[in-house]
Write a structure and sequence with these properties.
The protein is an alpha/beta fold. The chain has two domains: about 160 residues, Rossmann fold, CATH 3.40.50.720; about 180 residues, Dihydrodipicolinate Reductase, domain 2 (2-Layer Sandwich). The strands form three sheets. It has a six-stranded parallel sheet, sandwiched between helices. A six-stranded mixed sheet has the order 10-7-11-14-13-12. Strands 8-9 form a two-stranded antiparallel sheet. It is globular, with a radius of gyration of 19 Å. The structure holds NADP nicotinamide-adenine-dinucleotide phosphate. The site of NADP nicotinamide-adenine-dinucleotide phosphate has 31 residues, from helix 1, helix 3 and helix 11.
């Protein structure tokens, strides 16, 4: 593959940033050349992380830089900035010629910005050319979904392709790490469930339609799948669990549905990309799995697997019910962005 590409992580000192550093420490194609932050600018990474995280030893002495394109030397930028900072800064990096792969919501919904789950919609990367032409940028922005969308959109893809989707109802049980390091006060969440996460249901009802839709004639056409979501925060650390009731467009036997889920593979599996799990969906047959503590996986390819379980019939012949579990920090953030960057590289989009 030639020399490794130098990558910069914007917002490297947060919850998601540390997962990037762990996942990139031995990456065969990418090496971290720069990290940025806000309140920790000027510190060494080991000091920036003191008391709140774990960073691989090889990065301890990296200095946290301001998030300024002029200060960064890299071939590719990963952004895990908060929304407001991402809105201001990601454009500046793309304008300055950097390819940007972002976990932030700031640019996800623009009509020329791809929202990518590499196994589902790799062809949406064609929007990059439209974006560059329209905005006259040398670089570009590609986004990944909200970590809760990734908790359940993967199993919807084979169901859409095989049976059609008439309606999706989803109730989420989201881990505290999904809100960032300072996100949810411990006094609010310990021994409790919070049945409201600001802005989350809107994202979760919108994003799967863009991801499952098509990119044709220079524009996105969302999939016509109505989704009703209720999002809750629960006192787990890592792993967003979603309970789904899905009405298919045609009747299907439970075994057919199980087969569609188990057989699903995408382009990352065909290309054997370094961060692609051999099977993106693991169908659990035990009656009490998946569980966040047991099945969310680690900060490596194991955390990239979406675990589906409790598959059963609903109240009609067309209705199926199941739960879906995703590691929000890996498949839901750093890992999906790294896999997207691998796809960009493997398809010749990183120069
Ligand atoms: N947590 C998840 O599961 C998850 C999943 C998917 C997507 N996301 C998205 O990923 C992003 C980061 O989430 P997180 O959970 O890692 O948040 P976090 O723990 O709060 O970390 C935020 C990071 O951004 C930096 N930062 C804050 N304000 C900045 C500014 N004005 N300019 C430059 N850098 C700034 C912080 O630097 P300092 O430490 O130096 O202040 C820190 O490195 C968010 O957009 C979030 O929505 C999170």
């Amino acid at each position: 593959m030639g020399r490794k590409l130098r990558v910069c992580v914007l917002g490297a000192t947060g919850m998601v940033g540390q997962i990037y550093l762990q996942m990139l420490a031995d990456h065969p194609w990418f090496e971290v050349s720069a990290v940025t932050g806000n309140t920790t600018v000027g510190k060494k990474l080991v000091e920036a992380y003191a008391g709140k995280g774990d960073v691989p030893r090889k990065y301890w002495d990296l200095e946290v830089l301001p998030s300024d394109p002029a200060k960064v030397d890299a071939d590719l930028v990963f952004s895990c900035l908060p929304t407001k900072a991402a809105r201001e800064l990601e454009h500046k990096f793309a304008e300055a010629g950097f390819p940007v792969v972002s976990d932030a919501s700031a640019n996800r919904y623009h009509e020329d910005v791809p929202l990518i789950v590499p196994e589902i919609n790799p062809e949406h990367l064609d929007a990059i050319e439209v974006q560059r032409r329209r905005r006259k940028w040398d670089g570009f922005i590609v986004t990944t979904p909200n970590c809760t969308t990734t908790a359940f959109v993967m199993p919807l893809k084979p169901l859409l392709d095989e049976f059609g989707l008439r309606h999706v109802n989803v109730v989420t049980m989201q881990a505290v790490s999904g809100a960032g390091y300072n996100g949810v006060p411990s006094m609010a969440i310990l021994g409790n469930v919070i049945p409201y996460i600001p802005g989350e249901e809107e994202k979760v009802e919108l994003e799967p339609r863009k991801i499952l839709g098509s990119f044709e004639d220079g524009g996105f056409r969302p999939a016509e799948v109505p989704i009703d979501a209720t999002c809750t925060r629960v006192p787990t650390l890592v792993g967003h669990l979603a309970a789904l009731t899905v009405t298919l467009s045609r009747e299907a036997k439970l075994e057919e549905v199980a087969e569609a889920l188990e057989d699903f593979r995408g382009l990352p599996q065909q290309l054997e990309l370094p961060t692609a799990p051999p099977r993106p969906i693991e169908l659990r047959r035990e009656e009490d799995r998946p569980q966040p503590r047991l099945d969310a996986g680690s900060n490596d390819r194991s955390g990239m697997v979406v675990h589906v379980g409790r598959l059963r019939k609903g109240s009609s012949e067309r209705t199926v019910k199941f739960v879906s579990l995703t590691n929000n920090l890996v498949r839901g953030a750093a890992g999906i962005a790294i896999l997207t960057a691998e796809l960009l590289k493997a398809t010749g989009r990183l120069g």
